């Protein structure tokens, strides 16, 4: 379990860390942040942790100032000396609200709640994502080649020749593995339905890529992924946050 603690009081931080380690020995405290400014910078350049322990009053403002700027979509366990913010806390991704000094039993109950939620979501993810693609794609015929027109010329384009499709200036193009760029009659939404989902994936609004076109991948903010394609593009595309989880299933051959 990867944990971030946002707390501006050193004794409170030490106590929470001690209780977490006693409750989950293999938990990893990956960051200790003590201000809104520091937290904004950290979340802007790091993937989300499994859980955030979040104090409400920080050195330079309220934690709700932070949540207005940064999309902290992972579970949050609030730790505070004040009880009047509970309603605001549960309007976010808060799963528990612990009053200081934090008691060991209450922290353990919060962590157990987190474990239960994660186990449920994992099971739901298996139910929703595993069987459906098999049913949806069974027996379906996918596009094997396109007729491409440019100028006075007409050409056939085999799907296996395509590294990726992309949109630019309201037009759609195919980039071949040899580096040629050819105009397409269909937009990306239509192409996505025509192509085998085992081979092609829509990583964002602009790119529909083949698995073989991926040259490298790096983690980006908010659990997103930067993809290096071959042939190369001017700006490396980023897998949108809402597609990141499905993208990883696709890479693993689970779609």
Secondary structure elements and their pairing?
Layout: E1 2-6, H1 10-23, E2 28-33, H2 36-43, E3 51-55, E4 57-58, E5 61-62, H3 63-69, E6 76-80, H4 86-89, E7 94-99, H5 104-129, H6 131-137, E8 145-150, E9 153-158, E10 162-168, E11 171-176, E12 181-183, H7 188-194, E13 200-202, E14 207-210, E15 214-219, E16 225-229, E17 238-239, H8 244-251
Parallel strand pairs: 1-2, 1-3, 3-6, 6-7
Antiparallel strand pairs: 4-5, 8-9, 10-11, 10-14, 11-12, 13-14, 15-16, 16-17
Q: How would you describe this structure to a colleague?
A:
- By secondary structure, the protein is of the alpha/beta class.
- It has 2 domains: 2-120, Rossmann fold (3-Layer(aba) Sandwich), CATH 3.40.50.2300; 135-251, OB fold (Dihydrolipoamide Acetyltransferase, E2P).
- It contains 8 helices and 17 strands.
- It has helices at 10-23, 36-43, 63-69, 86-89, 104-129, 131-137, 188-194, 244-251; strands spanning 2-6, 28-33, 51-55, 57-58, 61-62, 76-80, 94-99, 145-150, 153-158, 162-168, 171-176, 181-183, 200-202, 207-210, 214-219, 225-229, 238-239.
- The strands form 5 sheets. It has a 5-stranded parallel sheet, sandwiched between helices.
- Strand 15 and strand 16 (225-229) form a beta hairpin.
- It is elongated.
- The chain starts with a strand and ends with a helix.
- The mean pLDDT is 88.
